[in-house]
Design goal:
The structure holds two protein chains of two kinds. Chain A is of the alpha+beta class. Helices cover 38% and strands 25% of the residues of chain A. Classes of the chains: A alpha+beta, B mainly beta. The interface between A and B is large, with 76 and 87 residues. Chain A: InterPro entries: SSU_processome_Utp12 (IPR007148), U3_snoRNA-assoc_WDR (IPR052414), WD40/YVTN_repeat-like_dom_sf (IPR015943), WD40_repeat_dom_sf (IPR036322), WD40_rpt (IPR001680).
Chain lengths: 721, 631
């Protein structure tokens, strides 16, 4: 089942590997690579130099090269192992004869130093100290053929090695002597060994895997299963299972190491889509495998669910597909950036850290990254982790001056180029306007300044007249108005009529707003919101199509948070929306959710005058609704009239005089029909009539504004007065 | 405890056995584990020039030149180590495998450094500032002593010092002579290469002592007075003159060692340094003189021709210059707590050892205001570095990881007497997954407009570093007191709270709107979502509960609890003795408790009932601590 599923992915991956091979050509192949476990602070990498092998040790935190080493002779390194040794036994009895400074400690402290064991082609093992930056010890004399593998015991006193001559040698590390030597197999092939965590058993693997008892040097078990040469073998933490991978093989076999039967059983296998290259096992038996193309596959605890299978069918393999796939993609062309080494990071003893450390990119300049593979919240494996990264560049590395380069690499200069800069004015709450400021309120409230200013803002809005609002406008808006007026005055208009022209904008504002909302144009949107004239606000909002109401409201509310300075304007708009489109808003089902935050903010800020404000709000609502109803009534009568006017204008557009006549009639009738304030307005009416004339002229000049709109404007204006 | 390395990390080491035997005795001992001042004293090269020794408080580190790694630490926990700061080191002239170290605790110890073995200990009983031992006379020491100063206030001030001559007999009993004394600090103590002269310089005076051990009173050299304050001296290896560096940057060669020129020595001077010369060193053949000072430029003088060669931009003020015995390496100690090893051939940096940068910064001007912050990604410690920077430091392996500039910084030397004021990083905070970092930095020199910036940095996985995302100018109208990230891990709903001396606290959030816009997909900006204050009190500290639902802001002695989502004031807790200001505030991990500390008290509040659960005075606290340790 698993295989049929994998088929299409297989194809995909082969496609990737083809493109990858071109990338591969520019990158030096890593011969040996290993992280310094368990903290993965260092990464050792052996690459091919011109005539010899070169070892480099990277600091994974900074990505810099700490050590660089290539031996004087034309040596090739055949294996690489990290180890910790401490010199100086308790009495400091041994004086080993290394060429350089001997390392020994006083009786109390045990200073561990990190070393790398390098297996050499000639059968000796060189111990490289990363503190000294040189070979401090050489183990030789026991092997004649190239070393295949070398392992340290945990206390650094013993070590084991195996070579192509099929011998396993046990070393006394401090003396540098061989303790014992035994033959692992008959065949001369590549062998690898691994030590169990309790250091009583040893696994050797060539074509077959053998489990050795270290005291008796006897084979406890042997496993067969891999066809090709085994490349990786590892014990789990409690030594009950081991995992192995082989050359040109896409299976990871899991073997049972407990039990007594001499023929060991492999009870489970993990499948990858491609050949496996690297292997790592965590403290919780999760297994990490790197495929040939540099993709990481992680399998969760292999031990937990396998025994059931074991009991049912003893000889059958069960296969498992990865629980987590981690790959790094090139930002530009989505090709895979290969991960060439990885390991689990087990920082805590009893807690799954859920991180792996990867080395990716080119071996010339690897990039190290910590990658999370376990979901933070539920602790589950993330099924797919895809990281999109820049391809690494800058391979021209000056090899000679490492220290200076490292120094520069650890210095992160200040760069402001990618940053957005905002100044405080956007975040400052404006001081309450002086002319409406009530000193008593100011002194009496011990409340915060926000609450003060906010409540005052709302008070200002309610109490202030249009004039006072205009006074509070920022210089910018004032300038803009000035600009507008100068444009208008070019059209041979007297400045006294400026308010009239503003009313004309009512329509265009709505269009601008719709356009701004539609195209998400912030600049345009801000232009609209800069309007503080209540009439423009009301008109614009009224004409706003219903489908834009909610987006508009949301946007205004965001502005409300962003720019406390313009809160007053915003509130005006918000208020207009709520008043005019109250009926619509009430039908929107999830509006409360959408506006809850805003509501809470308002609520908390005005908490101190709760009742008063509630009352004021309600009163406001009622008053405005009444006012609006009137307007609407007038509007309808007006509408019918305009139909007539329009039809007449259709008949004869050029006859302006007629229009004017109609218009005056209209306004007179309008005044008389309005029973409430007809008498009060009568004096104003005459003024308006005069101005109407002017306006009509202007319309003729402009030629594209319909009269119907103008009339509506007029009516609104007179109403609000 | 010296004031010099207050910034080193310390670990409380509890000696259980001692406490059991003597419960009243001082059971807690502080030992420095990592950090410390590396470059405050000149380093010493081993004879093969492959290793060098640098003193770090009471330990000596042996560092490999090739790797820059600490090969071993000369330090012994069994009481053999120095109890106080090591002030001087030198190789035993008779046996270069031995290292002598003199300390303020009044002892000189002889170590076999290859084995870290204490060979001998000389007791002087007086603090040792400088020492000289001559090859021909073992067990005889010339030491400079003075009155030790314990508090930071007297640091750098003048204090009386004296040169003493010690002779230890077979039973290690010292015999003491006073050679000379001064009311000012000793600025240099050198011996001529043939061991004939001992030259000591004080602030203004230079004395030359001819060493004849049998009779002290030979021909007496007069007391030379220099026209300006002496900062360092050096002696030419072959010619009979000494070089004097002074605080105005002048280097004076004074030919005073020939008997004929005693009374009126010939002087010649060279002047390049605009500021104080901190160190002078001659190469062993005497053809070159190296000098370094505040300009962070190494000047190499060819003495015969007067030709000068410069190595500028070393990064920080040069404290001392040392030349390796094989004359191939120059070691430069810098004020940023680093040691740079230069190749003498091409003057390229061969190795650099970096300690905690803040250790030598003047803490009175640039305090360690960030505290120690744990970076969540690699669990590094983040703290103030040089002014305007933060340093990432790995405390486990005692390694410098990186220095991150938080504000624009140019290294310029001052033009006038007044020092240039650099911006200082006040606060650093990280989001819980390490994707974001927030910093506050400020600069106020009392002349120009005060600068205050809140900066947000986003982790860039490509370069594996933090990239500046947003800068907010003047987030508060006065200084920022605290900076805290919301513990949430969701990157789209992160928030940061800052408190300022303007009595406000502000909640900053990621602007998710622009995040969604199509044009700038990656652009995320930060904006202020909420400004709060409480009765015009000054907020002291803030803390988020572990689940992020509650924000608590501590005012003088009042704790306010806010709903962090809607920013509504939920509750107010008042401390009982309200004359003490709150210092720290922390939520417990999985229980509804809030822990508050003031100067003398520790409170634990239960947030479910809003009652104070415990209230401990300092005395109680100590007892509890002790109980906790002993159980």
């Amino acid at each position: 089942m698993g295989r049929t599923k994998n088929k299409p992915r297989n194809n995909l991956n082969t496609a990737i590997s083809e493109t990858y091979s071109t990338v591969n050509s520019i990158k030096a192949e890593s011969l040996l690579a290993s992280f310094d476990l368990p903290a993965a602070e260092f990464f050792a990498l052996v690459t091919q130099s011109v005539d010899r092998h070169r070892l480099r040790v990277f600091d994974t935190h900074t990505g810099t090269v700490n050590n660089e080493f290539s031996s004087d002779k034309e040596d090739k390194f055949t294996c690489l192992t990290w180890g910790k040794i401490y010199d100086g036994d308790l009495n400091g009895k041994v004086d080993t004869p290394p060429p350089k400074k001997k390392k020994k400690l006083s009786s109390q402290i045990q200073q561990f130093s990190k070393v790398i064991a390098l297996g050499l082609q000639n059968g000796s093992i060189a111990i490289y100290s990363i503190a000294h930056g040189g070979i401090i010890k050489t183990l030789s004399g026991s092997h004649k053929l190239p070393i295949n593998n070398f392992i340290f015991s945990k206390n650094g006193k013993k070590a084991y090695s195996c070579a192509e001559d099929a011998y396993i040698v046990e070393w006394d590390f401090e003396k540098g002597d061989m303790i014992s030597k035994w033959k692992a197999d008959a065949q001369t092939t590549k062998y690898i060994i691994t030590l169990s965590h309790d250091e009583t058993k040893l696994l050797s693997a060539g074509h077959t895997i053998k489990l050795w008892d270290l005291r008796l040097k006897q084979v406890l078990k042997s496993f067969t299963g891999h066809v090709s040469i085994i490349t990786n073998i590892m014990f789990s933490v409690n030594d009950d299972i081991c995992v192995s991978t082989a050359e040109h093989d896409r299976f990871i076999n899991i073997w049972q190491c407990k039990g007594n039967e001499p023929q060991g059983v492999g009870f489970s296998a993990l499948t990858l889509d491609e050949d496996t290259k690297g292997l790592s096992i965590s403290k919780f038996n999760a297994i990490l495998a790197i495929s040939e193309t540099g993709i990481i596959n992680i399998f969760r605890d292999v031990n937990s669910h396998s025994p059931v299978q074991l009991n049912k069918k003893k000889k059958r393999f069960t296969t498992q597909t990865p629980d987590c796939v981690i790959k790094v993609l090139n930002e530009n062309d989505n090709t895979v950036i290969p991960i060439f080494s990885a390991c689990f990071l087990d920082e805590n003893e009893n807690e799954k850290s859920g991180f792996i450390m990867i080395a990716r990119g080119s071996t010339v300049k690897p990039i190290f990254e910590k990658v999370r593979f376990i979901d933070e919240k539920n602790g589950e494996f993330l099924p797919n982790v895809t990281l999109v990264r820049h391809p690494s560049t800058g391979f021209l590395v000056d090899e000679f001056n490492l220290a200076a380069k490292n120094l520069a690499a650890t210095q992160k200069p200040y760069d402001e180029s990618k940053a957005t800069v905002s100044s405080s004015s956007n975040y400052e709450i404006p001081k309450p306007p002086a002319e409406i400021d009530k000193p008593t309120q100011n002194s009496s409230t011990q409340n915060s300044s926000i609450q003060n200013s906010l409540t005052q803002n709302s008070l200002t809005q309610n109490s202030s007249t249009q004039n006072s609002l205009n006074q509070e406008e920022t210089l910018e808006t004032r300038l803009k108005e000035l600009d507008l007026m100068s444009v208008e005055s070019e059209n041979s208009q007297k400045s006294s009529h400026a308010p009239k022209f503003k009313t004309l904008q009512g329509n265009s504002m709505q269009q601008m707003l719709v356009q701004a909302l539609h195209s998400n144009d912030d600049h345009l949107f801000n232009l609209v919101l800069e309007q503080t004239n209540p009439e423009i606000v009301n008109n614009t909002v009224r004409k706003l199509p219903t489908k834009y109401i909610i987006p508009f409201l949301e946007k205004v509310i965001t502005r409300f948070y962003e720019k406390p300075k313009s809160v007053m304007n915003m509130l005006q708009w918000i208020k207009a929306v709520t008043l005019i489109h109250m009926t619509y808003l009430m039908t929107v089902p999830d509006l409360t959710r959408k506006l809850s935050e805003f509501y809470q903010a308002l609520d908390s800020r005005s908490a101190i005058f709760q009742k008063l404000l509630n009352f004021q709000g309600r009163l406001d609502l009622i008053m405005q609704q009444i006012a609006m109803r009137k307007t609407q009534e007038v509007g309808t009568t007006n509408g019918s009239e305009t139909i007539y006017v329009e039809s007449s204008s259709d008949d004869n557009i050029s006859e302006d005089g007629l229009d004017i006549m109609d218009n005056t009639n209209e306004s007179v009738s309008e005044g008389s029909s309005d029973s409430d304030d007809g008498s009060a307005l009568s004096s104003d009416e005459t003024d308006e009539e005069e101005s109407d004339d002017d306006e009509e002229e202007k319309i003729v000049f402009n030629g594209f504004r319909s009269k119907q709109q103008n009339k509506e404007m007029e009516v609104d204006e007179s109403d609000s007065e | 405890m010296s004031p010099m390395d207050t910034n080193g990390f310390r670990q409380l080491v509890f000696d259980g056995r001692q406490a059991a035997l003597h419960p009243e005795s001082q059971a807690l001992k502080i030992s420095r584990v990592v950090g410390g001042c590396l470059s405050s004293r000149p380093i010493i090269f081993s004879l093969d020039s492959k290793y060098f020794f640098c003193s770090c408080s009471n330990k000596i580190k042996v560092i490999s030149v090739t790797t820059g790694e600490v090969v071993k630490t000369i330090f012994d926990s069994s009481g053999n180590c120095h109890n106080d700061e090591i002030t001087c080191m030198m190789l035993n002239p008779n046996d270069p495998q031995q290292l002598l170290s003199g300390s303020l605790d009044g002892t000189i110890k002889v170590w076999k450094y290859s084995d870290v073995e204490l060979l001998k200990k000389y007791e002087f009983g007086i603090p040792i500032y400088r020492m000289v031992i001559l090859a021909s006379y073992p067990d005889r020491f010339f030491v400079v002593t003075g009155i030790p100063c314990k508090n930071a206030s007297c640091r750098g001030k003048q204090k009386a010092q004296a040169l003493l001559y010690f002779r230890f007999d077979k039973k290690d009993q010292p015999e003491m002579h006073l050679l000379c004394k001064s009311k000012s600090m000793c600025t240099g103590l050198v011996t001529s290469p043939d061991g004939e002269f001992l030259i000591i310089s004080f602030l203004r005076t230079i004395r030359i002592i001819k060493i004849k051990l049998n009779q002290q009173k030979g021909q007496k050299w007069p007391k030379y007075t220099h026209s300006s304050n002496i900062s360092c001296i050096a002696i030419h290896p072959s010619k009979p003159y000494i070089s004097i560096g002074d605080e105005y940057g002048k280097i004076t060669h004074m030919y005073c060692l020939k008997e004929s020129q005693i009374q009126d020595p010939v002087k010649s001077s060279v002047h390049w340094h605009p500021h104080k010369v901190n160190s002078l060193a001659f190469t062993s053949d005497g053809t070159y003189l190296l000098s370094g000072g505040k300009e962070s430029v190494l000047v190499i003088w060819q003495i015969e021709t007067g030709h000068t060669q410069f190595l500028p931009r070393l990064g920080s003020e040069i404290r001392s210059v040392t030349i390796s015995p094989d004359q191939t390496l120059y070691a430069i100690n810098l004020l940023d707590n680093s040691i740079k090893i230069l190749s003498a051939i091409n003057l390229e940096i061969k190795q650099a050892v970096q300690g905690l940068k803040h250790a030598q910064v003047d803490a009175s001007i640039y305090p360690l205001s960030t505290g120690l912050v744990i970076e969540p990604r690699n669990h590094l410690v983040v703290l103030n570095g040089l002014p305007g920077t933060i340093q990432f430091y790995n405390p486990h392996s005692d390694r410098h990881v990186m220095e991150h500039e938080v504000s624009q910084r140019t290294m310029i030397s001052r033009a006038f007497e007044k020092d240039i004021v650099y911006p200082n990083v006040n606060h650093v905070s990280f989001s819980s997954n390490g994707n974001w970092m927030a910093t506050v930095d400020s600069r106020e020199d009392g002349e120009t407009t005060p600068e205050l910036y809140l900066k947000f940095w986003k982790f860039d996985p490509n370069s594996q570093t933090y990239v500046l995302n947003a800068r907010i100018d003047n987030p508060h109208s006065k200084a920022v007191v605290s900076l805290n990230f919301h513990p949430g891990t969701n990157d789209t709903s992160l928030s940061v709270v800052t408190t300022g001396l303007d009595n406000k606290f502000k909640v900053w959030k990621i602007n998710s709107e622009s995040h969604a816009s199509q044009v700038f997909k990656d652009s995320v900006s930060w904006m202020c979502k909420f400004v709060g204050s409480y009765r015009q009190y000054t907020p002291r500290a803030t803390a988020f509960s572990q689940d992020g639902s509650i924000l608590s802001v501590a005012y003088d002695s009042i704790i306010t609890l806010w709903d962090s989502r809607s920013n509504v004031l939920r509750d107010v807790l008042t401390l009982l003795p309200n004359y003490e200001f709150i210092r720290h505030l922390a939520f417990t991990n999985n229980s509804p408790f809030l822990v508050v500390t003031t100067q003398n008290f520790l409170y634990v509040w239960n947030l479910l009932t809003c009652t104070s659960k415990y209230q401990l005075s300092e005395l109680c606290y100590k007892l509890l601590f002790r109980n906790y340790i002993s159980t």
